[in-house]
Amino acid sequence: MLLSVENLIVKYGNILALHGISFHVNSGEIVTLIGANGAGKTTSLYSICRLPPPEAPRVVAGDIKFQGESLLKTRPNEVVSRLKMALVPEGRHIFGNLTVMENLELATYSREKGAQLSEDYARVFDLFPRLSERRKQRSESLSGGEQQMLAVGRALMTGCQVLLLDEPSMGLAPRLKYELFRTLKQLNEQGMTILLVEQNANLALHLAHRGYVLDTGTIAASGTSEDLLGNPDVKKAYLGG
Ligand SMILES: Nc1ncnc2c1ncn2[C@@H]1O[C@H](COP(=O)(O)OP(=O)(O)O)[C@@H](O)[C@H]1O
Ligand SMILES: [Mg+2]
Question: How far is the CA of 224 from the centre of ligand 2 (A)?
Answer without folding.
Answer: 22
